[in-house]
Design a protein that fits this description.
Ribosomal Protein S5, domain 2; 4 helices; alpha+beta; about 40% helix
Length: about 160
C-alpha cells in the first residue's frame, strides 16, 4: 500500500518521529484491516510513549498548504479521545488506498492515542489533500508532545489528565 506508506512517512517526517512500520495484513480480503490496525497500533504506541503526559505542551496546531490544498490540524493529547475529521475527497482511491479509510485511520489513531483531533482539509487534488492532512497532523503532534520546561506536572488545572 504505497500511498499509505507515503502518508505515514510524511506524518513521521513532519512530526519529527522515528517510525518504522512492518505489517503483514490480509490484503487478499481488502485494505481495511491493514490500514486500521496500523493506525490503532501507532496510537497505542504514542499513548505508551507519553506515559502520564507530564511535562509536555499538550496542545498543538498546524496548518499545511500543498499547492491548491490546505489542511489544518488542532489537537489535545490530554488522554480524551475524540475525532472530528472533515477531509472530503473527489475520488474513491488514491493509489491502492480507499479514500474512506483516511478518515477511519485518523479516527482510530485518535482513539488509541487518547487524542482529541480536529482535522480539516480542502483542495481539488486528492493526493494533495491527504498529504497536507497527514503533514498537518504530524506538525501539530510535534508541538503538542514537545517538552515544556516550565511545567513539572501535567498541563491541567485539575492536576491530572484522563
Amino acid at each position: 500500500m504505497g500511498f499509505y506508506d507515503h502518508m505515514l512517512g510524511a506524518f513521521a517526517h513532519h512530526g519529527l518521529l522515528d517510525l518504522a512500520v512492518q505489517v503483514v495484513g490480509d490484503l487478499e480480503v481488502d485494505e481495511h484491516h491493514t490500514v486500521e490496525d496500523v493506525a490503532l497500533v501507532l496510537g497505542s504506541a504514542l499513548a505508551e510513549a507519553l506515559g502520564d503526559r507530564a511535562g509536555i505542551s499538550r496542545f498543538g496546531e498546524a496548518a499545511v498548504p500543498m499547492d491548491e490544498a490546505l489542511a489544518t490540524a488542532v489537537l489535545d493529547v490530554g488522554g480524551r479521545p475524540y475525532a472530528v475529521i472533515d477531509v472530503p475527497f473527489r475520488g474513491e482511491r488514491i493509489g491502492a488506498l480507499p479514500t474512506e479509510l483516511v478518515e477511519h485511520a485518523l479516527e482510530a489513531f485518535a482513539r488509541t492515542s487518547g487524542t482529541t483531533l480536529h482535522l480539516r482539509a480542502t483542495g481539488r487534488n486528492d493526493h494533495h489533500v491527504a498529504e497536507a492532512a497527514f503533514k498537518a497532523l504530524g506538525r501539530a503532534l510535534r508541538v503538542a508532545i514537545a517538552p515544556d520546561p516550565r511545567r513539572a506536572g501535567v498541563a491541567s488545572t485539575k492536576g491530572s489528565l484522563g
